[in-house]
Amino acid sequence: MLTEQQIYGIYVPVVTPFNAAGEVDLDSYQRNVKNIINNSIQGLVVNGTTGESPTVTVNEMQLLVNTSRELLQSTSIPLVVGTGTNDTASTVARTEIAANLGADCALVVVPYYSRPSQEGIIAHFRKAAEVGIPIMAYDIPSRTGTAMTLDTARTILEMNNVVGLKDCSGSSKMVTELVRTGSKPVLGGDDSLFYEMLSSGAAGGMLATANVYPAECIRIYEAFKSGQFDLAKENFEQLLPIIRLLFKESNPAPIKWMLSQNGLIDSDTLRLPMTSISTALQQELSSYVQDNAIEATA
Ligand SMILES: O=C(O)C1=N[C@H](C(=O)O)C[C@H](O)C1
């Protein structure tokens, strides 16, 4: 079970590879996860936004969780499973399934589409927290349409079983305030704000970019943690142009394309309504990668 003390560093929300027919491609999944866990990451996240959770069925989620547990069994890397939907009852049911399968934590997003009140958001998290497994709350208003207020975040973070927050609110305001007043740990989830989030008190990042650049993300975090702030910033700024390209079209389409180019997954297929990246972005990514090797700065 994930503890607050284990929430730091780089958590990687892995992609869910699909074959050309749109079925989960387990071989590719295993290949990509093995490559990621060969780096010293702090956590693996299955069925997050990057894992295309809105189109992954409960049976597929179970398959991915079981496969991930096998891959992680000789490591101490915790397994976080995205179980949040826009419906409280199905969120609770998925969280119970994840708990029964041995997940260390459930990642629960603010319910999307319905635009609940702050009271409704709090009640949703209270129900998820009652399942008993550690919960990481996930705020991403650019996707869900509703943001947690600071007071709501505080109330949720005070609940038993809620161990931390993944903050994709689009700025460092929330983390700054939470950390200033003492809070459970926060992971930054906006890749392009990673350095700013660390500087504002985030304990680490949950970064889709780390599917493609795990070592580079870890290097930024390690430099920051050891007090080498200029080095961390330099390494972050080196990664920033590619981060911007990876988010130029909807995540995880660019990440999947890069992984398929690197041979880590067989196909960049996404499930509709998500589609593969444009030819223009393919060209931008290819020429950026060709012209700019990301080198370690020591
Ligand atoms: O899947 C995730 O976790 C993340 N999703 C965000 C998004 O797709 O908007 C980005 C972040 O890297 C982590």
Automatic annotation (TrEMBL):
This is 4-hydroxy-tetrahydrodipicolinate synthase. Catalyzes the condensation of (S)-aspartate-beta-semialdehyde [(S)-ASA] and pyruvate to 4-hydroxy-tetrahydrodipicolinate (HTPA). NCBIfam families: dapA (TIGR00674). It is an enzyme of class 4 (lyase). It comes from the Bacteria. Belongs to the DapA family. It comes from Paenibacillus pseudetheri. The keyword Protein biosynthesis does not apply. Keywords: Amino-acid biosynthesis, Cytoplasm, Diaminopimelate biosynthesis, Lyase, Lysine biosynthesis, Schiff base. Homotetramer; dimer of dimers. Pathway: Amino-acid biosynthesis; L-lysine biosynthesis via DAP pathway; (S)-tetrahydrodipicolinate from L-aspartate: step 3/4. Pyruvate binds at residue 50. It catalyses: L-aspartate 4-semialdehyde + pyruvate = (2S,4S)-4-hydroxy-2,3,4,5-tetrahydrodipicolinate + H2O + H(+). CDD domains: DHDPS. The lineage of its organism: Bacteria, Bacillati, Bacillota, Bacilli, Bacillales. Its EC number is 4.3.3.7.
